[in-house]
Design a protein that fits this description.
By secondary structure, the protein is α/β, with parallel strands linked by helices. The chain is built from six helices and 17 strands.
Length: 313
């Protein structure tokens, strides 16, 4: 774990279990409890039998999902597909942003059980090895199904480490933000403001809102675990007082941005030109972040989803 003081840019090399030394009694850790669904489906076109791959992005209605299709150019409205030898069928009902499709699924039984049986975990493309244990791509506190990618900053936590934090008097709260793949899209616009984020579903409970508000009032620190948690809290804060809220967010945080909720941030090391890198640059300063990344490269830190951690304080 690379620890950065965002005020001075000072860097310290630690291990992730040392995070407890930086958390004080009365601070709160806020975690994203979204679970990754087995969102990669392999099937065939109903009319030709040719292979098709679906990647589930977000649920729009009970049986309607936005999906990425490969190959997808010929998937016109009305085209039908079959998965798991007929256990699941789908029909294209609309063509939306970036050529993605809205599809309506047909099945008998419980949708979640069918997806769990025939779907595969949507690992990032740079991970070539097949995942034998699906839980390896879940946080230990994941609870609510809906993500197409893991909120990976939380993968560093074990149940034992969270328990030690609680024993130290650190409060733990949860938000839900179902991570879509749009989060990871590189920014290709010459003018940053023109980049359009995909919407992601979020939920903040009154219990977590109260925890954060009380932490702030007592002068303690709100520590966001991951950029998804950060974006959820900052989304709700745009409306004023932090209170229970649910909806869709496409908030895009980049310098200069004045953070309203979070005091500290646990995150991984992100891809160049990503909105995630822009978010942490807004939080810690672009020069500080780029210096930290140079140091991380020099010290052979691992980057991306299953990589090492950064704690910005």
């Amino acid at each position: 774990m690379l620890v950065m003081d965002k005020n001075t840019g000072e860097l310290t090399h630690r291990h992730f279990y040392d995070i407890l030394e930086y958390l004080n009694e009365g601070d709160c850790l806020i975690l994203n409890n979204s679970r990754v669904i087995p969102a990669r489906l392999f099937g065939v076109r109903e009319d030709t039998g040719s292979p098709i791959e679906f990647l589930l992005l977000s649920r729009k209605e009970t049986d309607v999902w936005e999906v990425i299709l490969k190959p997808g150019k010929k998937a016109k409205i009305g085209k039908r597909f079959v998965f798991g030898e007929g256990k699941l069928k789908a029909e294209v009902i609309d063509i939306v942003n970036d050529g993605n499709r809205l599809v309506r699924f047909e099945y008998e039984g419980l949708y979640e059980n069918i997806i769990d049986e025939i779907g595969e975990m949507p690992l990032p493309p740079y991970i070539k090895e097949k995942l034998q244990d699906k839980e390896r791509y879940q946080t230990v506190y994941s609870k609510i199904d809906g993500s197409s990618a893991a909120p990976t900053a939380g993968l560093h936590f074990t149940e034992a480490l969270l328990e030690k934090a609680k024993q130290k008097g650190v409060n733990v709260g949860f938000v839900t933000l179902h991570v879509g793949l749009g989060t990871f899209r590189p920014v290709k616009e010459d003018v940053v403001e023109n980049h359009k984020m995909h919407s992601e579903f979020y939920e903040l409970s009154q219990e977590t809102a109260d925890l954060i508000n009380n932490t702030k009032k007592s002068g303690n620190k709100v520590v966001a675990v991951g950029t998804t948690t950060c974006r959820t809290l900052e989304t709700v804060a745009q409306k004023g007082e932090l209170k229970a809220s649910t909806g869709w967010t496409d908030i895009f945080i980049y310098p200069p941005y004045e953070f309203k909720v979070i005091d500290r941030l646990i995150t991984n090391f992100h891809l160049p030109q990503s909105t995630l890198l822009m978010l942490i640059s807004a939080f810690a300063g672009k020069e500080n972040v780029f210096n930290a990344y140079e140091e991380a490269i020099k010290e052979q830190y691992r980057f991306f989803s299953f990589g090492d951690a950064m704690f910005i304080m």
